[in-house]
């Protein structure tokens, strides 16, 4: 078995490892491959890619993302090998905390190497719904003068400094303002269409925008406001996944997260 960096020419064939109930993973790996803060790797058996995963590095935290072992190569220790290789690439002097979002299949592997469950994410499915905003004037396109407010809200929401990953996505975001302050933000072009808000109305109003174009939703179990809003609009829970942590515990506001960015970014 050989462990190497994933190259662009590898990405198109990654659908051969694609779990049946996941979104297409290839756009994620194109993103990982060009981002300086990501390290996507592969394990190959001769010329065949049999396992893949990515390390995503923020300021002093990291995420393991899209860890997948080919169905024909499971139960051979590759999940553990892949996970440990990615962890090894995160300098412990810098990255005090490592997170991942575990499926039921991956959970036993991560538990054995020391990860602990921090919280569940609930995954919902429903119909596209076109609901009118209560106060449309409060939702505006991003303006540069609100940059610091958006980034501060994300730091409080996530407990992390994730400024690098927002660099290319702020300009396409929509903000919810109240009394001139940023109380929520929606990123319609960023993977799972992240929503954060420290005001419940800001969160549910931005969810309305998302529900017009996306009929799945994933948010922490502690965001009862967001969960209730989905249930009121006939969304159904379809599964759960486990947010797991290795290292230093951090304070973050799960109830401010109205839809996660993706399984590999929180």
Q: CATH class of the largest domain, anyone?
A: Alpha Beta
- Enter the CATH topology name of the largest domain: Aminopeptidase
| Uncertain parts | none
Largest sheet: 8 strands, mixed
Total beta strands: 13
What would the principal axes of the Cα set say about the shape? globular
| Mean of all residue-level pLDDT scores | 93
Q: Indicate how many domains the architecture comprises.
A: 2
How much of the sequence is in beta strands? 25-35%
Task: Spell the H/E element sequence.
Answer: EHHEEEHEHEEHHEEEHEHEE
Oligomer: single chain
What's the helix count? Answer: 8
What is the terminal separation in angstroms? 30 Å
Gyration radius from CA atoms, angstroms: 19 Å
Tell me which CATH architecture of the largest domain applies here: 3-Layer(aba) Sandwich
Helical content stands at: 25-40%
What topology, given as strand order, has the largest sheet?
1-2-3-4-5-12-6-11
- The computed structural class is alpha+beta
Give a quick rundown of the structure.
This protein has 2 domains: 2-95, 3-Layer(aba) Sandwich (Aminopeptidase); 125-259, Aminopeptidase (3-Layer(aba) Sandwich). It is an alpha+beta fold and 266 residues long. It contains 8 helices and 13 strands.
